[in-house]
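Hi support team,

I'm filing this because I wasn't sure whether my run with S-adenosylmethionine finished correctly. The job status page said complete, but I'd like someone to confirm that the output block is well-formed before I use it downstream. Pasting the exact inputs I used:
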Amino acid sequence: MSDEYLSTGFADVDSAKDMDAYVDCLTLLDSLAYYQEYKIKSYELLQLRQGLMVLDAGCGLGDDACRIAKRVLPGGKVIGLDASVTMIEKARAHELATQLPVQFHVGDVNALPFSDNSFARCRIDRVLQHIPQPQKAISELVRVLEPDGLLLAYDNDWGTFSVTSQNVEITRTIENLWCDSFTNNWIGRHLCDHFISCGLSDIKIYPGTCVINDFQTADKVYNLRKTVQKAIAGGMISVSEGRDWIEELIYRTQMGSFMAALTAYTVIGKK
Ligand SMILES: C[S@@+](CC[C@H](N)C(=O)[O-])C[C@H]1O[C@@H](n2cnc3c(N)ncnc32)[C@H](O)[C@@H]1O
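And here is everything the job wrote out:
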């Protein structure tokens, strides 16, 4: 099993010992119906059309940037930016990257290498949960957005993370430990505050809840086993409590009653 802890490692993917853990996580999430639906909804809310200049900040493997590029043809262009050199290399190697008007740059969303008013649309998807100054990042995105341009952010609210189990105390311990390991664990519910502080108008909020029904998938994207190990190492639960909790979740998957749920928010505003 990889050492990587996904809640903290996405802040600096290039320092990871096992890069595949991050690539596999993004690839797996992108394959889930819930993710495909909210991502398509985000393109629709952005009112993408031919000729627009679009920024996807924290673009990861470049899948959104390529899908958006198809929607701004002809004449439009998409820039995908990510802090990780490795992510940008993977995005540049995307099978569609050479056929579409899309470019990928290494850069920090807190200090965007673009002039004021450069983009008609900006999008940031599950990045703010990992960075220390989300307000700074949003103000940078607003700076590079042209007047009347639209900014869309999607992010998780880890305070809503729930796993169904008989053992209330152990479940609370694991949920809270995972939630509190994120730099901005409640960013989802604070997106609207940041949009208002940055002077955006016509703000709309759309909640969505991702439900995963099998332990194996949930463990891959929510590090359930590793969080149990951390709780044991920190003296919060015993070895047998951790083992029994995981066994119940595996049993629930076999019985069809496993559930891990997480609410996230899509927020859109106009400059
Ligand atoms: C959870 S991934 C989401 C990737 C992509 N938006 C998606 O929906 O699949 C977070 C991404 O943000 C990037 N990232 C983290 N901190 C960043 C920063 N300060 N500036 C730009 N990108 C950053 C990471 O390298 C990673 O690719």
